């Protein structure tokens, strides 16, 4: 790729890619949008086709399909105002997930494309925005050196910055994605129910700790206990509402669950205390 990137012109580089059996297609000058009707699906290794495309637009950038079409996979390390993907790429490298690259290309934005050979199985494109890493595989494409993009009004090229001295190795994109974006673990088991007669503030504290999957049921149960204890709905919303929100429920859902509890449960009848009749009751009799 370094020899291709050193070509004196974009049309010369496009011809070299095609002569190596790597299909290419033209993209807009200084940009990434395809100039062909079907985008990367139109990519060709035909020298006549490539000549015709670049004769029409001599400064067209070079699009290179990724995946089994070209035998190339690319890890795209993004650099934006919101962050950089270099740290995540380095961490993945130390884990042995990104070590087999064949070429490293600096992108005009200051990011990087790491090129790998394909494995036998299809690997589709994906993105992990939180890590600022994109993967270009089957169904995608990249802009190849020596193409240029407009950066702050200046044409800036894609540059080959490193060529591996070792044989490039296929990338396991699924493992890389799992490392960059591990599945979120949720607790499925709810904490034990408080005993009947628990004070409202303790019910609220218990409610705030309920995990996903048990929040609605826990809120309904706690609200029913306050209904049975004779508390008005305004008190229950004020007591359990913030706890439900803290547990992750939206405020409207919290209120509708409490309203449902008041439609279902009924206050417990008050039982007269055992022992002598109070003086006030005796006088009233």
UniProtKB/TrEMBL annotation:
Residue ranges annotated for the DNA primase/polymerase bifunctional N-terminal domain, each copy included: 14-173
Pfam hit, one: Prim-Pol
Organism, as annotated: Nocardioides seonyuensis
Protein name (Swiss-Prot/TrEMBL): DNA replication protein
CDD domains cross-referenced by the UniProt entry: Prim_Pol
């Amino acid at each position: 790729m370094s020899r291709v990137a050193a070509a004196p012109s974009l049309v010369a580089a496009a011809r070299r890619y095609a002569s190596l059996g790597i299909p290419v297609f033209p993209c807009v000058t200084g940009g990434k949008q395809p100039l062909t009707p079907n985008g990367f699906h139109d990519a060709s290794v035909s020298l006549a086709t490539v000549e015709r495309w670049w004769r029409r637009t001599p400064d067209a950038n070079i699009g290179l399909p990724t995946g089994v079409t070209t035998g190339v996979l690319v890890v795209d390390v993004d650099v934006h105002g919101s962050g950089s993907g270099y740290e995540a790429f380095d961490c993945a490298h130390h884990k042995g997930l990104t070590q087999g690259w064949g070429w490293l290309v600096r992108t005009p934005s200051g990011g990087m494309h790491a090129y790998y050979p394909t494995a036998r199985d299809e690997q589709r494109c994906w993105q992990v925005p939180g890590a600022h890493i994109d993967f270009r595989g089957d169904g995608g494409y990249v802009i190849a050196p020596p193409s240029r993009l407009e950066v702050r009004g200046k044409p800036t090229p894609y540059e080959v910055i490193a060529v591996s001295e070792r044989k490039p190795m296929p990338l396991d994109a699924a493992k890389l994605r799992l490392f960059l974006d591990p599945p979120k673990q949720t607790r499925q088991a709810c904490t034990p129910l408080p005993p009947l007669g628990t004070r409202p503030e303790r019910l609220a504290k218990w409610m705030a700790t309920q995990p996903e999957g048990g929040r609605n049921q826990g809120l309904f149960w706690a609200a029913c206990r306050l209904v049975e204890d004779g508390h008005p709905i305004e008190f229950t919303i004020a007591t359990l509402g913030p706890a439900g929100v803290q547990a992750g429920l939206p405020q409207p859902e919290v209120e509708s669950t409490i309203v449902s509890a008041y439609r279902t449960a009924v206050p417990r009848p008050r039982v007269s205390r055992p022992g002598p009749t109070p003086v006030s009751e005796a006088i009233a009799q």
